[in-house]
């Protein structure tokens, strides 16, 4: 059981909606689209296209899009469905609980055009947003807390 379905189960969210939104939320990166609004637009378009092709209803497609739209929690945006809160939480945990912040720099993916100083500043900001704005369940914030503190002190030393 993946972390997304585990959280979905705990809070009574629709697991299929959560899994599909996790799969599609940044799907346009596959074609090299890296920034919003293009990343969001193309990802939503692809979600609709693929789900429709596989016989999902308009309401099911909309539920997945509703989870995806606010998942970055940028600029005061907040998920407005339980599935959206699970997606945002799982997205934050995928950044905080893995080697995400190290791998991004090492493989030059996303961070390709940044200087190291720019990358550190960007990462520190994103780490804060992941921990403080994207995790919607206390239990999971507590689980992520040590990794959050470690990441923060790691990047703060540069
Ligand atoms: Fe993500």
Number of domains: 1
Number of helices: 8
Stated plainly, the CATH topology is called Hypothetical protein af1432
CATH architecture type: Orthogonal Bundle
Tell me roughly what share of residues is in helical segments: 55-70%
The hetero compounds bound to this protein are:
fe (ii) ion
Kindly report the name of the CATH homologous superfamily.
Answer: Hypothetical protein af1432
Structural class: mainly alpha
Low-confidence stretches: none
| Molecular shape | globular
Q: Please trace the helix and strand order, writing H or E for each element.
A: HHHHHHHH
Strand portion:
under 5%
Q: What's the rounded overall pLDDT mean?
A: 93
Measured between the Cα atoms of the first and last residue, the distance is: 37 Å
**Largest sheet: number of strands, sense, barrel closure:** none
Number of strands: 0
As a whole number of angstroms, the C-alpha radius of gyration is: 16 Å
CATH class: Mainly Alpha
Kindly describe this structure:
The protein is globular, with a radius of gyration of 16 Å. 30% of the residues are buried. The chain has 158 residues and is an all-alpha fold. The longest helix has 19 residues, at 138-156. The chain is 66% helix and 0% strand. It has one domain: Hypothetical protein af1432. The model has no long low-confidence stretch (mean pLDDT 93). It has helices at residues 3-11, 15-24, 38-53, 58-68, 82-96, 100-106, 116-133, 138-156. Fe (ii) ion (FE2) binds next to helix 5.
């Amino acid at each position: 059981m993946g972390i997304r379905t585990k959280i979905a189960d705990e809070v009574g969210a629709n697991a299929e909606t959560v899994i599909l939104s996790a799969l599609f939320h940044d799907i346009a990166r596959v074609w090299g689209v890296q920034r919003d609004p293009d990343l969001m637009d193309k990802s939503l378009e692809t979600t609709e296209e693929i789900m429709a092709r596989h016989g999902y209803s308009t309401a099911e497609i909309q539920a997945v899009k509703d989870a995806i739209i606010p998942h970055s929690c940028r600029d005061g945006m907040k998920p407005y469905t339980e599935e959206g809160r699970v997606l945002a939480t799982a997205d934050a945990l995928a950044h905080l609980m893995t080697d995400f912040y190290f791998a991004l720099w090492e493989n030059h993916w996303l961070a390709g055009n940044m200087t190291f100083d720019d990358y550190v500043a960007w990462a520190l900001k994103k780490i804060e947003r992941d921990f403080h704005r994207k995790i919607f369940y206390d239990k999971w914030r507590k689980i992520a807390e040590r990794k959050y503190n470690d990441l923060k002190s790691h990047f703060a030393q540069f």
